[in-house]
Records
---
Amino acid sequence: MGLFETAAAKALASSGVFLFMTVLLIAAAKRISTCIALFSVQSLIITAQIIAVSRMHHSTEGFVIAGLVLSVKVIAIPYVLYRIVEELKAPRDVSSSTSSSQSVFIAAGLILLSFFAVRPYVGVLGGDQAMLAAAVALVLTGGFLMVSRKKALMQVVGLLVLDNGIFLAALTTTFGMPLVIEIGIVFDLLMGVFLMGLFVFRIRDTFDHLDVSKLRRLRG
Amino acid sequence: MTLMTNVLQVLLLILLAPLVRGVISRIKARIQNRRGASVWRPYADVLKLFRKQDLVPASASFVFRLAPMVVFTTTLVVAAFVPLLHGLALLGVTGDFVLLVYLLALGRFFLMLGAMDGGSSFGGMGASREALVSTLAEAPFLLALMSVAIAAHTASIAGMVQWTMGQNFFQFSAVHALAFAALVLVAIAETGRIPVDNPTTHLELTMIHEAMVLEYSGPSLALIEWASAIKLTVVMALLIALFVPWGMASSVSALALGVASLVMLLKIAALVLALALVECSVAKLRMYLVPDFLGVASALAILAVVFTALMR
Amino acid sequence: MVLLFPLFLPLAGALLVFLCRNPRVVVRVALTAGTLELAAIGIAVYSIHSWGVLQVGRYLCADGLTSFFLISLGLISALVLVYSSGYLRHVPEGRFSSLRWFYGLVFLFLFTMVAVYLSANLGMMWIFVEATTLASALLVGFYNTEGAVEAGWKYLIVCTVGIAFALFGTIAFYLAAVKGGVSPQSALDWGTLMAAAPGLVGGRELLKLAFVFVAVGYGTKVGFVPMHSWLPDAHAEAPSPISALLSAVLLNCAMYALLRFDAITSRAIGSGFSHTLLLIFGGVSLAVASLLMIVQRDLKRLLAYSSIEHMGIVAIGIGLGGTLGLLGALLHTFNHSIAKTLLFFTAGNVRENFGTLRMERIRGMALSLPWAGGALIVGGLAITGMPPFGLFVSELVILTAAFSTAHYFIAVLMLAAISVVFGALLHHFQHMLMGKSDDVPAQPALQASWLVVMGVCALCLVVLGVHIPAAFKAVLRGAMAVLQP
């Protein structure tokens, strides 16, 4: 194994750390576009992991999936979301119900929680504990973002983070599912984001704001 | 030879500090499409101030005269604790990271005393703001350093640096990543840079450091300004030493030291560039958002400490 | 081949509809495609009945269970298409709200649901369950009012998150199968998994974890109570034909997915765990929904809570297990679909005539709208499980299952909830039927096509309540054979 491979392997083994950092940064971020960029970075880290894993397992399918994730999650979806932010011409802060420091505290708590949550399953599922914990942490913080952020677009970002977590869980435990299924999942996600973008515009047109917490006409 | 290198390190830190400041403001000027002052300007400022008369307000006591000297001395001592070219420092005792934090705090305490002793309302206002920021910054500062100390199994800064140098460059540890993030935030608050404080403003609504030194003049002001320049450089050197020490000399030979100083110069240049870029693209926080900013640092630092236990 | 027709006909229908510009042509194309789809499903069901399991390629497969659910899908979707042809005369202006979009999206929605039923692969099934949400979200927000947009957004977000958990569960199932020695390429095929299930006991903990996630995920789509928040909004704000499709077809679709996972889990690690979980979800949904029905003020929200209640009953049936429990559950999905379709059609009719769905503003339907009033009475009696309608039979079967397996608490809960629902519906409906309306609708609009669809619904309910036809019995037997090999 050459120097490059050693370096790459070492870096990937600890890439869970980078994922934690992106999660914390998203929690601290104040602007929607920052969150979108961070999501893109997060997906890029996951793409790198897919490539590394498929190299280790000598699977060509893995490279196809990596290309797919790269084009959809790293480029297409962030681009679409950026365009939506641009076109909405609405205030661009995330309008959180918790301050950034509270959010970071909560995200930190969720990361710790996920470490303890995966501990009993590390033996059963196999895979690296930090990576598995990162997957659970992504799911949890995605959920937290969806609950605490009031802007409709931030709920989409939360959902995407959550989805990244599930994708990562699949990657670390099963080294990917059959190719057709993976393609279908990514395609569904892309369509979902398009549709949500469409609804964001409709919410703005019908309500004149994007604050989801003010949508309370339907109750009970 | 080792002793000479250690002394050389401290001298470098002290003498190059105004240059670092000058370079930062030059880069910022360039980014903002101005020509900017010469990079040697801070030296000229300090020299000029030393030649001027020292005016003391009539209501001030001896504390007003004493404060600048204490500030300068504590900063000098702090500089002696930080390894720059190789994994050793002039001073180094077990647990010195705590000492470092509190020496900085001592300097700030005297600066606040001096500011209040000056008797102007701006001094008191700046002092109270400084007290708020430094109180909030202290916990994350200590915790972040402590997490590195726990990971390195040593409580001296030089020891931590040597331990990190022995680690694989590509093996990122969560503890270090988190502690680094926390320390960067703390360093910004500690050295009074944007977005916590703006070193170039004299706007009464926002200034912290400048409000405190408003009554000082002559040699006293020169000492304070020089001390704050040293503090900035020392904190940068501390960040580099703790988190990216690779490239430091492992043996004390002329060649190794030459390479090490070149590498160190590059690292500081990179940090300076990053700082200038951040300061140009970020707006200063409103005062009541500063606790939030340092809260983020605290959360990161606490997480770093907890991770030392998890990563075992 | 037989399976490709019912699958791709709706897709072709959607394409054709999108190509047409003239509204009249759109309606005609839609009705034709709907009829063809019904015929194709009929043929598919017949061939499944005569040849057993049909498999097309790696990813499509149909067995007895599929054919049972396809029947209700075909029947309801045909009724909905006929009803819509008369209902959608005044389409509001706006992006994505035109007749073309309506029918195009309905056919896409149908395509995704047929695809869920025909998926041989659990991953494929997940993809299409998610696709049902995407296809129907715009339909829920079709009217472009504040409420409709809000309901559409909520539906999209809540269901996508829920379904994401189901993906996690599916992955865990896959992992358990691979660890249990199934080859990775076929480890998501339902047939393979069912055959290999007894060998998966080793992954007990993993399968339990997986089933919890699947139950929460698909349970969101079914409308189990803690995750039900999207359901009343979506049902109430969607156009009435879409409410019927959501309630009578989509919920079954999600229940079908849950049923498949439950079958594998029960076979692998015994039925104790998954069935208990379903009983809890079912019981809570039943109790909460029946109580909330008392306080509803909007007719369609009332019907939506009733859907949650009935899905709870179905979950209880599956959770009780055994021949009786499963039989009752399957029969109940079918009966509920038809009764709910009838009621949502009636609600659409009420809205057309009174211009509102607030129940306190609707009076004197028995006099001013005799046909709609009659339909409301029939639907109301049927949905509360009165004889001689089909739901009486299926609820009785589930209750018998509860008593015979000594689940007395569940049985008592069910009886209590059904009585509460009966009281609530009696209270609401008598208010709407009796008295004199302050603003009598100027011209009670009534269309022949509506009479036909409502008549068909009522007829089905009565027939299933009195005597189950032999052909239907055969289909039911086929479905039971799949679940209890």
---
Amino acid sequence: MLKLDIFLSALANGLMTGAVYALISLGLTLVYGVLHIINFAHGATLTAAMFAVLIAHTVFGLDPYLAVFFLTPLFFALGYGVQRFVINPASHGSDSNILLVTLGLSIIIENALLAGFRSDTRSIDVPYGFSVVEVGNLFLSVPKLVAFVASFVVALLLWLLLARTDTGKAIRAVAKEKTGAALSGINVDHIYAVTFGLGAACLAIAACLLMPTFLVNPRIGNAFVLVAFTIVVLGGMGSIAGALVGGLIIGVVESLSGLYFGESLGQIGIFLIFILVLLFRPTGLFGAKA
Amino acid sequence: MSALLSVQGVTKRFGGLTAVDNASLDVAAGSITGLIGPNGAGKTTLFTVIAGFEPATAGKVQFEGRDITALPAHVRAVQGIARTFQIVQPFAGLSVRENIAVGAFLRHKARQAALEQADAVGHQVGLGPLLDQSAGQLTVAGRKRLELARALATAPRLLLLDEVLAGLNPSEIRDMMPVVQAIRSSGVTILIVEHVMQAVMSLCDTVHVLAQGRIIAAGPPGTVSRDPAVIEAYLGHGAAARMQAQDIRQAESRGDHPGAPHA
Amino acid sequence: MSRQPYLPIALVVAGLALLPLGLTSNTVLNFLAFAMIITLAAQGWNILGGYGGQFSFGHAVFFGTGAYAMALLQVRFGINPWLALPLAMALGAGVGFAIGYLSFRARLRGSYFALVTLAFAEVFRISANAWGFTGGAAGVLVPLRIGAEHMQFADKRLAYWLALAFVAATLALTLALSRSRFGAHLVAVRENEEAARALGVDALAVKLKAITLSGAITASAGCLYTQKFLYLDANLAYGPWISVEALLAPIIGGLGTVFGPLVGAVVLLGLGEVTKTTFANLTGGAIPGVDLVVFGVLLILCVAYAPRGVLGLAEGWLGRLKGTRP
């Protein structure tokens, strides 16, 4: 039965990591769904958020789960500002320019962090970092379980925001038909920036949930960014439900293939899924839109 | 005259929607043939299938007696079918001359020859003074001419024109019509999809009318425009009868015989 | 239009060739040789991205394939580097064709193409890092054997001139390409693929040719890198740094122009050196990453204010100078 236990614990770990992946992907898929662009700086923004959690903890002694209440609005504001005052004016409305500008941003963020913090890998010490709960024969890490639950809560809140609020309606209107939305008095630039801000806010939350169990270094975003792209492509570009399911699938695939084939080949598995989905099913597993 | 292009029973479906339904038409060599119809009739879809930009769901397209149904667009261009786009698609980063030269390169491998051909075609369509300008700076009328020039530069035997007159003002239309006629005189057969009725009537030898995906009439423009089915398609059910009644009343009041040619 | 279209290339190359006669310090020669290698990688990118409009974010895949093939053909198969070089370039071309065939047939373009190239580069990087044949994480060491027949030069100027010869050849090739039917077709596909197809352009074939050529040229940069440093690992050969520099140089120099990659590479690396030294002097120690921060800022500034790069800016200034002359 030992084998089954190992399998189940890898599965549970995969699901829990997958939920955080899903949270990271939510921001990416939201921005894609509304602006129809790929934010290449997504991974670097996550790294920045993780460093922000690190600073909050080491300098201000703030617990990550408390820092979330400060960092989420801060990153919303940053995301809003960067889209409104850098990406939008610099790219003159061309998609390939947006791609290049966000690539530029990711280079700047990543290397500014490298210059500031060097390439050392850091982590934070929290009292509950290694606490576990026993479920049946499985020992589940508490912070990972918190991350799992919180990711779903955030996804639900995001969905409510999109479905029930005026801002959400405006976002959906802009996503569907931006010219029409502009004609009916919606400030498209503002909505784009709000969407970008929401994406960054999701990353701040993800960073707070990740830091108790993850390490951080200036290049950590790279590890997440292709995973997030894979999830978004797998789930169907722009689909929130797709990002959730895609995140869980990738989390499990990574965990299980890591168990059976070793870490580095597990990573290759993700990239291969990414390439195969893009080549053969670019609308994603669930997506119907082109 | 023999048929240069022959469309046989072409059907095009998008999911559950049948955009073109079993349409057949012939384009005689040396003619200007029109394809008209009310909005949403499927003209542009049929046009796109003929040009090879969308595959037909069923049916055949023959060019010079050869079946070209399965050929991709660029191969059709090599065989002598050129098209323009309703929404003009200039290579905005290039000059007018370079734009036309892309078409000319189809028949000329050498740069010099292609550029000379581009100059000649540019002058033919009235873009001579603008050859060095960036294509992105052209006016709408200029862009329509550029569409025409690029297609012509491929030295086609059949030219497919998708609403080259739409969006032009009346004086620009008047300027453009002789250009189209001159192209036909130079030996190029033309199939034109057009909204501007007055132009269709004076340019075309034959018109085909498409309504709800079906060809409902074909013949000389004068005949087709009096066809009750065509009038109904354009103006709605019962329109033909009303117009006929009106004609008869007018004729009676003037003491003419009904059915006399319209002014 | 100049009657001697190749004259500017001849003049620039002659000027570059004469540089080491005046500047003999090792630092300068190393800088020049490295700049030529980056130029070469960027020229490969420019054919696909600048002329063809297909932005690759993973040109490291070609650079690394060239670099590894060059090293492994010598180390594992005892093949002479002068023979290994064309073989490695052919392999780069083959990888280019394969990636192009898969992606372009799936109609990937824009962001999707950028992402898929990045993913391919990562797959190659992780594989090279894990596989024993490529030396795994330890990398590959090419044994030191000084001598022209081993393409290893005691005189650093020779290494530079060799790289310059490659740059000269690709400059001429790029100019010939931009004046050819293939070049016209490639630019037409960049500007508007549908319209190009209507004019008889086989867009898929054109893009495939471009990525194959691009792969071969960027692979040659990898070959010269191997011969210069005689050591490789997966992060050097397939790492994101080279993908980024191959893309930045043409954009900063002038996208889709013959001299863009050369100008961009020199500006980029020059600015990088200046930044690194300035910051090191200011803070009393080397700071990793500052040069790349500057590159990122430069990229955004170029996209925002100089879409035609340094060359476009220079052209604009010259035009204004001429215009204001009485």
